[in-house]
TrEMBL record:
Cell compartments where the protein resides: Cell membrane
Residue ranges annotated for the Cardiolipin synthase N-terminal domain, each copy included: 18-63
UniProt source species: Thermobispora bispora (strain ATCC 19993 / DSM 43833 / CBS 139.67 / JCM 10125 / KCTC 9307 / NBRC 14880 / R51)
Major localisation: membrane
Name of protein: Cardiolipin synthase N-terminal domain-containing protein
């Protein structure tokens, strides 16, 4: 029963470690031109040296803002949206499917 007394601190320590690693990985993998308010190197140092507070500051003030999908003036955001009338992939393109059918039949 005595081992259950330390369990909340172990769990909270693991949660803090996971949060810290998530934020540190997120800072490192974010392109430098998308980082807000401070240079990327400064954010890496802040998150690395202040595990809980640094990660929270990164999430609030440093990470890139989500693209405004509903705002046509903002563009497509980080992912290009498919344009109406254009096939999304080769299997949606009728001309590609016809040429594939001809190749499979040996007509070309």
């Amino acid at each position: 029963m005595a081992y259950l007394v330390g369990m909340p601190s172990v769990i909270s320590g693991l949660v803090l470690l996971a949060f810290w690693l998530f934020c540190l990985f997120h800072v490192i993998t974010t392109p430098w031109h998308e980082v807000r308010n401070l240079p990327k190197a400064a954010w890496v140092i802040i998150v690395a040296l202040l595990p809980g507070l640094g990660g929270l500051l990164w999430l609030l003030f440093g990470r890139p803002q989500a693209p405004a999908w509903h705002d046509p003036a903002a563009g497509a955001g980080w992912r290009e949206q498919p344009q109406p009338g254009r096939p999304i992939g080769p299997d949606d393109d009728p001309e590609f499917l016809r040429s594939l059918d001809r190749r499979l039949r040996g007509e070309e």
